[in-house]
Amino acid sequence: MGGAGEGEASLTARPLTKIAKDLRQDSTRAEIILWSRLKAKQLAGIKFRRQQPIGRFIVDFVSFEKRVIIELDGGQHTESQERDCKRDFIVAEDGFTVLRFWNNEVLQNLEGVLDAILTACATPLSPSPSPSHQGRGGRS
To answer: Is the pTM of the predicted complex or chain greater than 0.90?
Structure first.
């Protein structure tokens, strides 16, 4: 998340929407290829957005309807795996599922990546827990 080597400090220096716009203009080859198959609801009618701010992070692709985030990682992410795990945990607390793919997976196995995305999008969202009825109209 955050892409293109943007560090935490630079995220706070500029508005996230400006950074996201810049990232959309500076996409990797893998991002361009995947976006060509996700945009305009081409994948099972699911709407995706790219380089989208969510909280204090910018994610590569997201379906708000399906609560699925897709992150493409290049070689630079081998050094930032711990930070990525923390970010994944934070967005998971907001009900998102995070899928991570290496850029070379998209370049060499696009159909397999799309199948994995479809599978994640087809998985039913966890229902919100029902509110507790304890103390409401209970018998004494």
So the answer is: no
User: Which of 106, 70, 75 shows the shortest CA–CA distance to 88?
Assistant: 70
Q: How far is CA 1 from CA 54, 80, 128, 134, in A?
A: 10, 10, 26, 41
Among candidates 46, 31, 27, 39, which has minimal Cα distance to 110?
Answer: 31
Q: What is the 3-state secondary structure (H, E, C) of the chain?
A: CCCCCCCHHHHHHCCHHHHHHHHHHCCCHHHHHHHHHHHHHCCCCCCCEEEEEECCEEEEEEECCCCEEEEEECHHHHCCHHHHHHHHHHHHHCCCEEEEEEHHHHHHCHHHHHHHHHHHHHCCCCCCCCCCCCCCCCCC
Instruction: Using the structure block, give the residue that is written with the tokens 């203009």.
Output: 25
- Reported as a single tens digit per residue, the pLDDT across 86-134 is 999 999 999 999 999 999 999 999 999 999 999 999 987 655 444 444 4
Torsion, CA 110, CA 101, CA 47, CA 85, rounded to 10: 170
What are the structural domains, with CATH classification, of the chain?
9-122 (3.40.960.10)
